[in-house]
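Quick entry between incubations.
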Amino acid sequence: MKLMLNGEPVETAVTFVAELVREQAGAAGRVAVVVNDRVVPAADHAATRLSEGDRVELLTFAGGG
Amino acid sequence: MEHDSFLLGDQTFSSRLLLGTGKFSDVGVMTRAIAASGAQIVTAALRRFDRDRPHDNLLGPLLAMPGVTLMPNTSGARTAEEAIQAARIARELCGSRFIKVEIHPNPRHLMPDPIETFNAARVLAAEGWIVMPYIPADPVLAKRLEEVGCASVMPLGSAIGSGQGLSTAGLLQIIIREARIPVIVDAGLRSPSQAAAALEMGCAAVLVNTAVAAAGDPAAMAAAFAQAAAAGRQARRAGLMAAAEEAQASSPLTAFLQ
Amino acid sequence: MKMNNTTHEPPAQLPEALDPRPWLDTPPPDARAVAAALAAEAPDEATFLTLLRADPAVYLEPMARRARALTRRYFGRTIQLYAPLYLSNYCSGGCAYCGFAADRHQARHRLERPEIGQELAALKRLGFEQVLLLTGERTPHADFGYLCDGVRAAAAVFHEVTAEAFPMTTEEYHGLAEAGCTGVTLYQETYDPEAYPRFHRWGPKRDFAGRLDAPERALAAGIPSVGLGALLGLSDPLFDTLALFRHVRDLQRRFWRAAFSVSFPRLRPEAGGFQAPKPVSDRQLAQIIFAFRICLPETTLVLSTREAPAFRDGLAGVGINRMSAGSRTTVGGYSEPAADDGQFVVSDARDVAAFCAMLRARGLDPVFKNWDAAFRDVLVPETRRCCV
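Done. Structure below.
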């Protein structure tokens, strides 16, 4: 399906958030997931389905004061 | 003189230096600076995860530092709603109850928006966050934020990254005198002596970022800032001498009382 | 109801925020400490106590200079003028030191509505725009409703109406604010909870804590300003003035939109024969006033006609920025002579014109109005509240 991921259109074969995180972030450590402006807690990643056209943000910490 | 500490929410801190994590050349330099300073609170911002730059990941190294509390900030948010959302995202990442509400919509001077900051702080404080708002040095805004339950206020010394020091000193003194919560001077400090001056003035702590990250030797500079902040605090507790003497004038005012 | 002073009530306690005792144990200040206190940019309890304990032979004059400089900085050369109007001298109380106590022989009287109107008109003719309405402790003759009616009548005529009566509930203070009351004055008399019952022999005024909490109830209810004080002479002045200082600072930090004033009622020898246990001399009172001005530089400090002319002349503009003039402490007494003896003897009997002439001769500027009542009418109750 087509998704907007971090502002860019992507094509992906995954169905669940957890799969997307594994695909995109791999072993890079924790990311926070926001789907259509709603924060999806880590406990729900495995069970949360993605839909065509969803806007997904993967976020982490960065240097900043 | 025994160690003294201050309360943020229900947590006690003794280090008078907080550090930001921006503008360091790499994560290793950053962690060495934090370790050298003894800072107990470190703030970091949110960004989109970039699969091409996984080595910029701060979370792992920060969580691995003993004695360091991560205080996420909402830098990048332009509205209260965005800041509140950023707080939720940050908690999802690290579980911290601390949140530095930092809303600066103008990228040229990075001055904090008092209205959006107040609106975000009020919501987050009601939800139980330990709210640390970054604000202009406005004494009335500081009291209003205290009123709605913020754990501290963080008035700026001067614009972020400007190195102009305590240009708001007069207003900071008013804020400090009237506050019932810790006042943490944040932004614009260039040198450790300015940090000492802020602590001598009576604030609880200072937050420094650019001056450490941009130094030739960030770890050494961070340690210098920590020492200066501690010295300023100790001087304050030791009782500073009077700055000036009043000159004696002509006829006495109290002759009628002899 | 028991009406004696041997009731076994548990002793009241001062809250930690007001308790002066941690500071009272410190050693007397040396010259360096006093110099630092005189120049302090952020005066605190230690500063205040240092100034109180400084040797007056050396430091009274420098303190006076600093007090005058700060009074000028925050108030210019203005002296706010107000008049006290006793609405009633009925009193249920048993204050050992007061001419109105229930066991004193006084002609008891209260002003009826037409008389209140006449008294207010007389004060208006004298030039006053700020009036202080007084009653004794609550009685059926002069209860909350009576006071509220008096406030309403005064608020229609004067720009500022302050009430000095008895501790009230939050709801009552709200009612007072709605009636146009712009300030409440209430003296704790003494902040020493062990000494307090000795002077307040019976009645509601024995409730030390209820009285202490009343100013914050008033502020929470929307009364914009509060006047505090201790009756100097009852107890150790160091204890009472430091507790008073802490009381003001605590309320100022919590009700930061509100205005505050501090008064300095001092026990004088009076007809009933009550002797002040810890008398405060003129020099001591001056030192206390200077210490308050230096440590609460933006707070209004009040001196009434209870004090003698020479003392009032010397303190006007030197710490003190608000004074009464031409006062009557009898019930009414401005439109025609009163029948009673008054609460205390007025030492400064100069009329308003003479008093203002003295002020001007000293380069001071008597002002009869601080805030215009137009601001009071514009504000809706929600914005008058002083704290969440």
